[in-house]
Design goal:
The structure holds 4 protein chains of 4 kinds.
Chain B (H helix, E strand, L loop, with lengths): L5 E10 L2 E11 L4 E5 L6 H8 L7 E6 L2 E2 L5 H10 E4 L11 H12 L5 H14 L15 H13 L5 E5 L7 H16 L3 E5 L3 H7 L2 E6 L2 E7 H6 L3 H7 L12 H16 L41
Helix pairs in contact in B: 3-4, 3-5, 4-5
Chain C lengths: L1 H35 L4 H11 L4 H25 L5 H40 L2 H7 L4 H39 L4 H11 L2 H27 L7 H30 L1
Chain D lengths: L1 H5 L1 H26 L6 E8 L10 E4 L2 E11 L5 E8 L11 E6 L6 E6 L19 H8 L11 H34 L6 H9 L1 H39 L4 H7 L4 H5 L4 H29 L4 H24 L1 H4 L21
Parallel strand pairs in D: 2-6
Antiparallel strand pairs in D: 1-4, 2-3, 3-4, 5-6
Helix pairs in contact in D: 4-5, 6-9, 6-10, 9-10
Classes of the chains: A mainly alpha, B alpha/beta, C mainly alpha, D alpha+beta.
C-alpha cells in the first residue's frame, strides 16, 4: 500500500509541465468540447466502419458519386475521434472512387492525404494501400514506369506489415499491390515478371477467399496471355475469372469476363461461340446497368452476327447500339446502322 | 381509431436542476417501429426510460394503449410489464443469478402457474432466438459484453412482448450478432410487434424504421415517418438523418431501361439468343462481390431490392 | 442566509419524508412478503445464510470469550468474599441484556450492512434494479423485503446463539480451566435470568435488525449512477446503522430501567 | 461454499430451528425457575417504614430464599402494609407463630428480610398475618418462646471485612470486561497479540483475507500507476510536440490542400488530445486518493472492508479508464475495423 503512495508521488508526472501543456492545448483548441467518453468513441468508429462498407457497396455497383459521399462521411467520423488509420482507409477508398469516376487529380490528392495519415498512424498496410492507389493514378495517366516504382514500394510495405500481422489487412493490401505491379509490368512488356506477380496475388487471394479479387487476377492474366498470343490459355484464364466473379456475384466483373471470352473466341476464329459469349456479356451488362460493357458487347455483336450471316440479328444489335448512343447523347451513327 | 400503443404527452424529465427531457410528445401506432436518433447525451436513453416508466417523468403523461402509466393499478402495471420488454444498452443482467435464472425470472413472475418444463422451454427458445447456444448455467460475469447483451435481449423477448424498448441494441456488437439483432427486429416487425428504439445506426433505421425521431438536448427536434425523415432538409436534422438511405432503388438510367426492354423483346423473339440466363443477379443490385465476411455488407445487406442505392 | 437556511430545511424535510416513505414501503412489503409467495423466498434464505449462519462463528467466539472472562472473574475474584452469585447477574446483564444484542448488531452491520448497501448500490449502477422494474418485479418486495426479513431473522437467531454460547458455551470453556458444578452454574443462572431479560434482548435484536436492514437498503438504493458512489453508500450504511442502533439501545435501556 | 449454496435451505432451516428450540427451552426453564407454574402462598405483614423493603425483596430462611415481598401499601395509620409470598416448596416450613426480621446493615450495605418459623407443629394458614420481630406482637412471640431468633450468622461481619476488596474487585471486573471488549475490537482490527485477541483474530480471518486482498490489489495498482506515469510522459511529450513550431501541428497544417480536410472537423483532433491529457491526470489523482485514504484508516472491520471495496471499485474504474483511453492504448479494443476498399485494377486488352 505504501508502494502505491510512493509511486503516486513519483516525479514522473511533472504536473507543472502537464498543466502548461494543457493550457496551451486548451488555447489551441478554442472552445473545447467535453471529453468524449470511450463509449462514444466506440460508437463513432463503428459508424465510420459501417459507412465505409456502405460506400464499398456503391463502388461495386458503379455508383461512384454515392460511394464517395459515404467515404466522406466515414472520414468525418474518423476525424472526430482522431482515428488516423480509419481516416487513411476512408481517404484511400475515396481516392479509388475518384479514380473510378475519372477524376485522377482528385484521386491523387486523396491518396496523398491517405498516405500522410497512414504514415502518422504508423500503419504499414494503410501506407501500402495509399501507395498502390497513387500508382493506379499513374497507370490511368499512362506513366507505367512511375507506377511500377510505387507498386514496388507498396509491395515492400505490405510485406513488412504482413509479418506478425493479426488482421487480414496486410494480406489484402499485399494482394492488391502485387496485382497492380503485374499490371504495370505487363504494360512495360515485362510479361514473365507480370505473370509471376499475378500467380503470387492469386495465391494470396485464394488463401483469403477473395473471389472478386481472384477474378481480377485471372482477367489480367488472360489479357497478358492474349497479348503473347497464347489464346487458348488466355480463354481458359478468362473463363476461370468468370467462375470467380460468378461466385462473388460480381455482375460488372461477369460482363467483362464474358466480353473477354467473346473477344478471344473471335480471335480463335470460333465465331458462333464468340457470339454466345458476347450475348451473355450483354445480358449481364444490362442486368447491372454497366454501360461500358454493354457498348462493347453491342459493338462486337453487330459485325460478328453479320459475319456469321445473321443479318436480322445484326440489325437488332445495331438498333440497340443506336438506342444506347441516343441515350448517352452521342451523335447519330452511320445511316447503315439505322433501323 | 384505436388508441396508439404508446403515446407521450408533453413528457418532461429533470435530474436535479438539469432538464433531460423537454416536453416530448409523440405517438406510436400498433405494429410500428419508432427509431430515435441523436448524438450521445441527446436524451435517447432518457426518452426510453421515461417512455417505459423506468424513470418517473416530472411532468406530462405516458399512455400505453390509452392507459396512463402513473395511474395504473398494480395489476395493470404487471400486465404492462408483461407486454413490454426493455433491452438495456449495457445488458443489465442480474449478476448474482445464472443466465438461466436471468431468462426464467420474467416467466416465473408473470406465469406463476407454469411448470418447470414449460419455463425451461421458454428459456431455451429465447436463448436460441438470439443465437446463444452456450451453457446457461454460467454467470453473466463469465460472458463477453456482446454475449451479455444478447442474453439481455433474450430476457426482453422471453415473454414475447408486444412492445419492445431497445436502447442501442446493436451498437458495439460483432457483425454476426448485430445482424442477428437486426433479424430479430425484422421478425418482430413481421409479427406486428411495436418497437421503440434508440439507435445511432443509420443502416438499422433505414431498414426498419416506420417513424424517425431526432433528439437534441432533451428536445424532440422532429418526429415523422421514415419517408419524411429521409427528406428532411433542415441542416440540424440532416446532420443526423443524412445517412438514411432511400428505401427504393433510384430509377434505372434511361439507357438501361430502354435497352433492357429492347433486349428482352429480342430475347422473346429469338429463343436461341441466350441459352440460359448467365447468372441469377440478385434483385438488380450487387455487392462488390468478395465472398469473405465482408461480402454481405454494403447495400445488399438488406437482401431486398429496397436497399442499396444511394 | 435566511433563504439558504430555509431551503436546507425544506430539503431536509423532503429527505426525511422520503426516507420515512421508504421505511413504510419496505415494512409493508415485508409484512406482505409471505402472502405474495414470490420467488424472493430464495433471496431470504440466502440472506439468512449470509447474515446469520456465516456470522455465527465470529459471534460464537465473541460470546464465548466474554462469557468465559466473566465466568473466571466470578469463580475466582467474587468468590473470595462470598459474592460469587454476582457473577450470574453480570453474565445476564452483559450477555443477554446489554452487550449481546449490541455486539451482534455490530457484527451484522460490519458484515451485512456494508454488503447489502454495496450490493444494491452496484445493482443500481449496473441498471439491474431498472431491469427488475422492466420485467415487472417490484424491487422493494423482491430485493428489500427478503433482505429485511433475513437480517431481522438473523439478528434474532444470532442473539439466541450469542446467549447460548455466552452462557452455556463459556461454561464449557471454563470447565477446562476451573471446573464449576454444572448443576450449580445453571441453577444460579436461571435464578437470575428473568423472562424480561430474554424479551429485552430479543426486542433489541428485532429493533436493531430493522434499523440495520432499512438503513443499508436505503443507502444502497440511494446510489444514483456512478460506481464511485457505491463504497460511499457502504460507509454511510455502516455509519447510520451504528448511530441509530446506539440511539435505539439507549432508548430501550432507558425504557426498561425507567419504566 | 458450493456446498453451502446447494444446501442453503437445509442449513438455514437447521440454523433457525436450533435457535428457536433453544429459545423455547430457555423460556420454559426460566418459567420454571420463575415459578410461573408453581403455587405461592400469600401472607400479610406490616412495617413501620418502607425503607429497605420493596416489591420483589427476597425473604430468606437459614440462607435459602423461601419467598418474596409482592406488594406494599401505606395504610391509613401511616404504617406500611405488605403482602409477601412463600414458595410451595417451603410452605410446610412456615409454621404458626412465625416472625419476620428486617436486618439492616449498619454501614448501609442494604437490608435482608429473614423469616423465622414458629415452633408450633401447625402450619401457618394462608393469608394470615406474620408480625415483624421488632413489633409488639413479634416481641411477645419471642418472649413467650414460641419462636426462636438465632444469633446472627457472620454475613455482616464478613461483609464488613470484605468491603474494601469487594469494591476494588468490582472495579476490576468492569475493567476486565472493558479490556476484553477492547481486545476483541483490536483483534478485529488485527493488532492484538493477546490470547483472547488471537482467538478472535482467527475467527476474523475473513477480515485478514480482505486485507491481504487489498494489499495485493495495491501492488497491482502501483504497477498500473507506473504505466500511467509513462503514459503521462508520452502525453507531455506529445503536447510539447504539438506546440513545437516545426512539429506535428504545422505539418498537419502545411500539407498541400489538406488543411481543410484535417481541420474541417472543428478542432476535434485537438479537443481529443486535450481531454485525453485531462483524463490521464484525473486518473492519477484518483489513484493517489485511494492510497491516502487507505493509509489513514484501518480501525475496524467495517471500514477495512469498505476501503477494500472502494479500492477495488476505483481500481476497476482506473483500469477501465486506462484500458479504454484510445490515446493511451493506441487504439480502442474490440472495435470494428474500418477497411479501405481493396480493389485491384482490371486493366487489359484482348
Amino acid at each position: 500500500m505504501s508502494a502505491l503512495a510512493r509511486a503516486a508521488r513519483r516525479p514522473g508526472l511533472r504536473p507543472a509541465r502537464l498543466a502548461s501543456g494543457l493550457a496551451a492545448l486548451v488555447l489551441a483548441a478554442g472552445c473545447s468540447s467535453a471529453p468524449k467518453s470511450t463509449g462514444v468513441v466506440y460508437a463513432v468508429r463503428d459508424k465510420a466502419a459501417e459507412l465505409a462498407k456502405l460506400g464499398d457497396g456503391f463502388m461495386g455497383t458503379g455508383q461512384y458519386e454515392s460511394a464517395r459521399r459515404y467515404y466522406d462521411e466515414a472520414l468525418r467520423a474518423s476525424n472526430s475521434v482522431d482515428d488516423l488509420e480509419g481516416g487513411a482507409a476512408a481517404l484511400a477508398s475515396m481516392g479509388r472512387a475518384y479514380l473510378a469516376g475519372g477524376m485522377p487529380a482528385e484521386a491523387r490528392s486523396a491518396f496523398e492525404l491517405s498516405l500522410e495519415r497512414a504514415v502518422l498512424a504508423g500503419a504499414g498496410s494503410a501506407q501500402s494501400t495509399a501507395l498502390a492507389g497513387l500508382g493506379e493514378v499513374l497507370v490511368a495517366e499512362g506513366d507505367h514506369a512511375g507506377a511500377l516504382e510505387l507498386f514496388a514500394r507498396a509491395v515492400a510495405l505490405a510485406e513488412a506489415a504482413l509479418k506478425g500481422a493479426k488482421t487480414e489487412a496486410p494480406s489484402r493490401a499485399l494482394a492488391v499491390a502485387v496485382h497492380d505491379r503485374a499490371v504495370a509490368q505487363a504494360a512495360l512488356g515485362l510479361r514473365a515478371e507480370a505473370l509471376a506477380s499475378l500467380a503470387r496475388a492469386e495465391e494470396l487471394n485464394l488463401k483469403g477467399k477473395r473471389s472478386s479479387e481472384l477474378a481480377a487476377n485471372r482477367y489480367v492474366r488472360a489479357s497478358i496471355l492474349a497479348s503473347e498470343g497464347r489464346l487458348e490459355e488466355a480463354l481458359a484464364s478468362a473463363l476461370s475469372a468468370l467462375e470467380a466473379d460468378k461466385a462473388a456475384e460480381n455482375g460488372r466483373g461477369v460482363a467483362g469476363d464474358l466480353g473477354a471470352a467473346g473477344r478471344l473466341c473471335e480471335r480463335l476464329g470460333r465465331g458462333p461461340e464468340a457470339l454466345g459469349y458476347w450475348k451473355r456479356s450483354l445480358d449481364a451488362a444490362l442486368a447491372v446497368d454497366h454501360a461500358k460493357a454493354a457498348r462493347a458487347a453491342l459493338e462486337a455483336l453487330g459485325p460478328l452476327a453479320a459475319s456469321l450471316g445473321r443479318e436480322a440479328e445484326a440489325a437488332r444489335y445495331a438498333a440497340l447500339l443506336a438506342k444506347l448512343d441516343a441515350a448517352e447523347g452521342r451523335p447519330a451513327p452511320a445511316p447503315a446502322a439505322a433501323p | 381509431m384505436a388508441a396508439p400503443v404508446l403515446e407521450l404527452r408533453s413528457v418532461t424529465c429533470t435530474r436535479g436542476e438539469a432538464v433531460i427531457l423537454d416536453e416530448v410528445s409523440l405517438r406510436l401506432e400498433e405494429g410500428e417501429a419508432a427509431f430515435f436518433m441523436g448524438a450521445a447525451g441527446s436524451g435517447k436513453s432518457a426518452l426510453l426510460k421515461a417512455a417505459s416508466g423506468l424513470d418517473v417523468a416530472s411532468a406530462g403523461e405516458i399512455l400505453f394503449r390509452g392507459r396512463e402509466l402513473s395511474r395504473m393499478t398494480r395489476r395493470e402495471e404487471a400486465e404492462f410489464r408483461r407486454k413490454t420488454g426493455f433491452v438495456f444498452q449495457d445488458a443489465a443482467l442480474w449478476a448474482n443469478q445464472s443466465l438461466y435464472d436471468n431468462l426464467a425470472l420474467p416467466v416465473r413472475i408473470h406465469e406463476p402457474g407454469l411448470g418447470a418444463a414449460a419455463i425451461d422451454a421458454a428459456v431455451r427458445r429465447a436463448a436460441e432466438l438470439v443465437g446463444y447456444d452456450e451453457e446457461l448455467r454460467a454467470r453473466p460475469a463469465e460472458l463477453s459484453l456482446g454475449e451479455r447483451r444478447l442474453i439481455g435481449l433474450a430476457r426482453a423477448l422471453v415473454l414475447d412482448p408486444e412492445l419492445l424498448y431497445m436502447d442501442e441494441p446493436a451498437a458495439n456488437l460483432d457483425e454476426e450478432s448485430a445482424e442477428r439483432v437486426h433479424e430479430i427486429q425484422a421478425a418482430l416487425k413481421d409479427r406486428g410487434r411495436s418497437l421503440f428504439v434508440a439507435s445511432s445506426s443509420s443502416a438499422a433505421v433505414s431498414r426498419f424504421a416506420d417513424r424517425v425521431g431526432v433528439l437534441r438536448g432533451g428536445r424532440l427536434l422532429a418526429y415523422g415517418s421514415f419517408d419524411e425523415a429521409a427528406a428532411w432538409t433542415d441542416p440540424a436534422l440532416r446532420g443526423i438523418t443524412g445517412r438514411l438511405k432511400a428505401r427504393k432503388a433510384p430509377p434505372r438510367p434511361e439507357w438501361a431501361s430502354s435497352l433492357a426492354g429492347a433486349w428482352a423483346d429480342a430475347l422473346a423473339e429469338d429463343k436461341s439468343a441466350v441459352d440460359e440466363p448467365e447468372w441469377k443477379l440478385r434483385d438488380g443490385a450487387s455487392g462488390d462481390g468478395d465472398i469473405d465476411s465482408d461480402a454481405d455488407a454494403g447495400p445488399s445487406e438488406g437482401g431486398g431490392e429496397e436497399d442499396g442505392r444511394g | 442566509m435566511l433563504e439558504r437556511l430555509g431551503r436546507a430545511t425544506i430539503r431536509r424535510a423532503e429527505e426525511a419524508s422520503y426516507a420515512f416513505g421508504f421505511f413504510a414501503q419496505v415494512m409493508r412489503e415485508s409484512i406482505l412478503f409471505f402472502r405474495r409467495r414470490q420467488v424472493g423466498f430464495k433471496v431470504l434464505v440466502m440472506q439468512i445464510l449470509f447474515t446469520g449462519v456465516e456470522a455465527l462463528r465470529i459471534s460464537a467466539v465473541l460470546a464465548v470469550a466474554i462469557g468465559a472472562a466473566i465466568n473466571l472473574i466470578g469463580s475466582s475474584l467474587l468468590a473470595e468474599f462470598g459474592q460469587s452469585k454476582l457473577m450470574y447477574s453480570l453474565l445476564i446483564i452483559v450477555i443477554t441484556r446489554e452487550l449481546g444484542p449490541l455486539l451482534t448488531a455490530f457484527i451484522v452491520i460490519a458484515r451485512s450492512g456494508t454488503a447489502i448497501a454495496t450490493e444494491l448500490g452496484g445493482m443500481v449502477v449496473a441498471h439491474e434494479i431498472e431491469a427488475y422494474v422492466a420485467v415487472g418485479v417490484n424491487p422493494i418486495s423482491y430485493l428489500a423485503a427478503p433482505r429485511l426479513l433475513g437480517v431481522v431473522a438473523s439478528m434474532l437467531t444470532l442473539d439466541v446463539y450469542f446467549n447460548l454460547f455466552g452462557l452455556a458455551g463459556s461454561f464449557a470453556v471454563v470447565q477446562l480451566i476451573k471446573p464449576i458444578a454444572f448443576d450449580e452454574y445453571f441453577r444460579n443462572l436461571l435464578e437470575v435470568l428473568g423472562a424480561g431479560d430474554l424479551l429485552m434482548g430479543l426486542l433489541k435484536s428485532l429493533v436493531f435488525g430493522v434499523i440495520i436492514a432499512v438503513a443499508s437498503l436505503y443507502r444502497g438504493f440511494a446510489v444514483e449512477r456512478a460506481s464511485t458512489e457505491v463504497p460511499v453508500a457502504g460507509i454511510r450504511a455502516v455509519g447510520s446503522s451504528f448511530m441509530l442502533c446506539i440511539v435505539a439501545d439507549v432508548l430501550l435501556t432507558a425504557m426498561q430501567y425507567l419504566g | 461454499m458450493k456446498f453451502r449454496i446447494r444446501h442453503a435451505d437445509r442449513i438455514v432451516g437447521a440454523f433457525v430451528l436450533v435457535a428457536a428450540a433453544a429459545l423455547c427451552g430457555s423460556i420454559v426453564l426460566v418459567g420454571a425457575n420463575q415459578r410461573w407454574f408453581a403455587r405461592d402462598y400469600r401472607f400479610e405483614t406490616r412495617f413501620a417504614s418502607a425503607a429497605g423493603v420493596a416489591p420483589g425483596t427476597a425473604i430468606y430462611m437459614k440462607g435459602f430464599q423461601i419467598g418474596k415481598i409482592q406488594r406494599i401499601t401505606l395504610n391509613e395509620g401511616n404504617e406500611v402494609d405488605a403482602t409477601f409470598v412463600v414458595y410451595d416448596d417451603y410452605y410446610p416450613k412456615a409454621r404458626k407463630d412465625s416472625v419476620l426480621e428486617l436486618v439492616t446493615s449498619p454501614i448501609g450495605l442494604g437490608t435482608q428480610l429473614l423469616f423465622h418459623p414458629g415452633k408450633a407443629e401447625e402450619v401457618l394458614a394462608e393469608g394470615s398475618f406474620v408480625p415483624l420481630a421488632g413489633s409488639e406482637e413479634g416481641r411477645f412471640l419471642i418472649e413467650e418462646g414460641l419462636v426462636e431468633i438465632p444469633p446472627k450468622d457472620d454475613t455482616i461481619t464478613r461483609l464488613l471485612a470484605g468491603i474494601n476488596p469487594l469494591i476494588e474487585d468490582l472495579d476490576k471486573t468492569v475493567v476486565t470486561v472493558n479490556r476484553t471488549l477492547t481486545e476483541v475490537n483490536r483483534a478485529l482490527a488485527g493488532q492484538s497479540s493477546g490470547p483472547a485477541g488471537r482467538i478472535v483474530n482467527d475467527a476474523a480471518k475473513a477480515v485478514a483475507t480482505a486485507e491481504s486482498y487489498v494489499d495485493t490489489l495495491m501492488a497491482q495498482v502501483s504497477d498500473l500507476l507506473k504505466s500511467a506515469n509513462a503514459v503521462a510522459d508520452n502525453a507531455a511529450a506529445m503536447s510539447a510536440e504539438l506546440r513545437d513550431p516545426t512539429g506535428l501541428v504545422p505539418r498537419l497544417l502545411d500539407a498541400k490542400g489538406s488543411v481543410k480536410t484535417l481541420l474541417d472537423d472543428k478542432n476535434v483532433l485537438f479537443d481529443r488530445l486535450t481531454s485525453s491529457l485531462a483524463e490521464t491526470e484525473k486518473t492519477l489523482k484518483n489513484v493517489q486518493g485511494i492510497t491516502q485514504e487507505l493509509r489513514a484508516q484501518m480501525p475496524s472491520i467495517g471500514v477495512a472492508i469498505d476501503e477494500g471495496r472502494t479500492a477495488i471499485k476505483q481500481a476497476q474504474d482506473v483500469l477501465e479508464g486506462l484500458k479504454n483511453n484510445p490515446l493511451l492504448r493506441g487504439g480502442v479494443p474490440e472495435r470494428r475495423e474500418q477497411q479501405p476498399l481493396y480493389q485491384s485494377l482490371r486493366e487489359g486488352e484482348f
